[in-house]
Specification:
The protein is α+β, with helices and mostly antiparallel strands. The chain has helices at about 25-30, 35-45, 75-85, 105-115, 120-135; strands spanning about 5-15, 55-60, 65-70, 100, 140.
Length: about 140
């Protein structure tokens, strides 16, 4: 089988199970001429179990207007906010603390994020997650 030529790679973040042809999906994919509804249906079917979470997606668009997409793990900031039970992080991180998470929460987030992080082991992943929490004004206790 001949290899398809890649025309574009589009990265978007959409809430799981709630993709629609409206922006940001329509504006990101429309110029490339792919069937937006086909993507929306496939994305919603694959992410319905993760409802309520933002799931980044990397869409590879080919010359014949076909596409493939890869689901990534939710952003670290979203997972940290969920564990801390917050709607948003601190307005002035470093000077104020918006909330806190435990070491167990930190390890759980690191386990979830491990496939998408450039870390060799769980300890390095935990350090990356800890840094994200610190930059959001969330304390690890």
């Amino acid at each position: 089988m001949a290899q398809k030529n890649v025309v574009a790679v589009v990265k978007i973040q959409i809430e799981a199970g709630k993709a629609s042809p409206a922006p940001p999906v329509g504006t990101a994919l429309g110029p490339h001429g792919i069937a937006i509804m086909d993507f929306v249906k496939a994305y919603n079917a694959q992410t319905e179990s993760q409802a309520g979470t933002v799931v980044p997606t990397e869409i590879t668009i080919y010359e014949d207007r076909s596409f493939d997409f890869i689901l990534k793990t939710p952003p670290t900031a979203v997972l940290v906010r969920q564990k801390a039970g917050l709607d948003k992080a601190a307005n002035n991180p470093g000077a104020e603390t918006a909330g806190s998470i435990t070491e167990a929460d930190l390890e759980e987030i690191a386990q979830i994020k491990m496939p998408d992080l450039n870390a060799y082991d769980i300890e390095a992943a935990k350090l990356q997650v800890r840094g994200t929490a610190r930059s959001m004004g969330i304390e690890v206790v």
